[in-house]
């Protein structure tokens, strides 16, 4: 579904991704973990074509998007939904208008059908009676839920998450984790999550990939990673645990 | 020596890069303006913001500009008995220069800064990235409607400014300075030509392009959080104002 082949990206003289290889399985939750400032967000933005690699290939459903023009890239992007770190809701629009935005842009649904879908998606993420509220009236956790509702509005095949639990208190973090797992089960979409929250990653992931110094250094199920005897993986997990889970990338 | 040249040339390189990015944004805006979907609803919304909501400011500045101009020119012309020329001088100055330039400066302060702040905030809170991920081009959705609205509305605001400026000047000239009303109006009709008005409106449209293009450019290239948004807003007002004055000179030289 998603294949990253020898992706290299530098900003000025700093190499952020260094011949990175990663295959992401369809209809599963893959969590890419790494330290703050380690290039996780850059990697995620490569997958959806917001950043182009210096070299390497990004294959989405058999199409290499690394050199596509904007028009073709926009077509591929319709397969995606993305939840940003701070939800990135349009603050000039209501919650309902935010969730309706991709539907109005890319479908010919009637207003009634759009409203119905908006309510369905908001119910799916556990929100009711918020359609007329502005994003500024919502808590951090609620904003993320609305962001997720918007991300899945068009029933995308792939949903990307940029640090979904960062900045949330432990109870809300758990609640967002449960929401992600439940939503993936119902939508059967491919979820790609970047995080430095190792505990959260072990809870929700089908597969965990470890990003270190621009490369994926270990990939496996949570159990495989947790029980790994590799001293490097052990140290990596220890470092991430030490880093805490409230720091932003 | 090389180090000195590097140091001295840095601002020039920055300036050339900045101009290049602004021109690329302009070309991209033009290309997106003719591709569907045509976003008329957003354009009308922006026309309301740029035009309708600026009418109050333009009325006040236009009227007082005309009034003070009448006052100043009257005292100058009185020295050689040329008071009858106050009306025509005022009308020429308003239609050719003061109407378009002062309107553009006021709209830059009110609208150009708001464009930079709004788009800058959208940039630093990843709302522009969110548009991209939803296959919506930010230039077409955000920049093109703002530039179109500014190009269309600045001439309309300038007509209002010209009109209230001349009315304000008439009020001061005729009612306070006792210039003959018939002569005041006759001289305006005699001397001011339609070309003076048209050329002033072309200038206004060009200033609309400058202030909206610079505002949008500074907004979508904002980096660095709230501080960056503040910096982008200030820079957009300063750069737009400077460019308006510089381009005014060259447009005047070509047109009149």
Descriptive tags:
A: 249 residues; alpha/beta; Rossmann fold; 6-stranded mixed sheet; 25% strand; disordered C terminus; B: 9 helices
Could you please describe the fold and organization of this structure?
- The complex is a heterodimer of chains A (249) and B (256).
- Chain A has 249 residues and is an alpha/beta fold.
- Chain A folds into two domains: 2-79 and 156-243, P-loop containing nucleotide triphosphate hydrolases (Rossmann fold); 91-155, no CATH class.
- In chain A, 39% of the residues lie in helices and 25% in strands.
- Chain A has a six-stranded mixed sheet, with helices on both faces. A four-stranded antiparallel sheet of chain A has the order 2-1-4-5, covered by helices on one side.
- Chain A is globular and about 55 Å long.
- With 256 residues, chain B is an all-alpha fold.
- Chain B has one domain (2-255).
- In chain B, helix 2 (40-50) runs parallel beside helix 6 and helix 3 (55-78) runs antiparallel to helix 4.
- Chain B starts with a helix and ends with a helix.
- The mean pLDDT of chain B is 95.
- The A-B interface holds A 45, 48, 50, 70, 74-75, 77-78, 80-82, 84-86, 88-92, 101-102, 105-106, 160 and B 118, 121-122, 125-127, 129-130, 132-137.
């Amino acid at each position: 579904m998603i294949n990253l082949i020898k992706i290299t990206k530098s900003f000025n003289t700093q190499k952020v991704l260094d011949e990175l290889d990663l295959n992401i399985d369809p209809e599963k939750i893959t969590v890419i973990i790494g330290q703050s400032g380690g290039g996780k967000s850059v990697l995620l933005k490569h997958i959806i074509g917001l950043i182009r690699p210096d070299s390497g290939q990004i294959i989405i459903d058999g199409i290499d998007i690394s050199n596509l023009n904007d028009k073709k890239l926009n077509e591929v992007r319709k397969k995606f939904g993305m939840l940003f770190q701070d939800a990135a809701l349009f603050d000039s629009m209501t919650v309902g208008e935010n969730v309706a935005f991709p539907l109005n842009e890319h479908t010919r649904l009637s207003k009634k059908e759009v409203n119905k879908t908006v309510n369905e998606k908001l119910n799916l993420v556990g929100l009711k009676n918020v359609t007329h509220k502005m994003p500024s009236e919502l808590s951090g956790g609620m904003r993320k839920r609305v962001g997720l509702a918007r991300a899945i509005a068009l029933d995308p095949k792939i949903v990307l998450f940029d640090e979904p639990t960062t900045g949330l208190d432990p109870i809300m973090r758990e609640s967002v984790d449960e929401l992600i797992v439940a939503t993936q089960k119902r939508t059967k979409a491919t979820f790609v999550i970047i995080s430095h929250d190792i505990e959260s990653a072990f809870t929700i992931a089908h597969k965990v990939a470890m990003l270190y110094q621009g490369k994926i250094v270990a990939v496996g199920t949570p159990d495989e990673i947790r029980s790994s005897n590799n001293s490097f993986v052990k140290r990596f997990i220890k470092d991430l645990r030490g880093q805490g889970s409230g720091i932003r990338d | 020596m090389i180090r000195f040249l590097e140091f001295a040339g840095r601002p020039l390189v920055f300036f050339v890069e900045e101009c290049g990015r602004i021109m690329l944004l302009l070309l991209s805006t033009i290309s997106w303006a003719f591709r569907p979907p045509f976003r008329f609803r957003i354009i009308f919304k922006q026309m309301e913001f740029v035009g309708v909501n600026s009418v109050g400011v333009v009325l006040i500045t236009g009227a007082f500009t005309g009034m003070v101009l009448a006052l100043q020119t009257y005292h100058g012309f009185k020295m050689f008995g040329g008071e009858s020329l106050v009306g025509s001088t005022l009308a020429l100055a308003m239609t050719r220069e003061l109407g378009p330039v002062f309107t553009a400066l006021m709209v830059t302060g009110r609208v150009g800064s708001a464009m930079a702040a709004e788009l800058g905030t959208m940039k630093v809170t990843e709302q522009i990235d969110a548009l991209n991920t939803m296959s919506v081009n930010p230039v077409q959705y955000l920049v093109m409607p703002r530039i179109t609205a500014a190009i269309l509305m600045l001439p309309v605001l300038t007509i209002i400014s010209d009109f209230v400026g001349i009315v304000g000047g008439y009020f001061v000239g005729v009612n306070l300075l006792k210039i003959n009303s018939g002569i005041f109006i006759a001289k305006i009709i005699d001397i001011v030509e339609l070309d003076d008005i048209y050329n002033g409106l072309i200038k206004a449209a060009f200033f609309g392009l400058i202030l909206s293009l610079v505002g949008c450019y500074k907004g979508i290239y904002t980096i660095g959080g709230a501080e960056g948004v503040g910096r982008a807003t200030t820079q957009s007002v300063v750069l737009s104002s400077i460019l308006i004055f510089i381009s005014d000179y060259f447009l005047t030289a070509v047109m009149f």
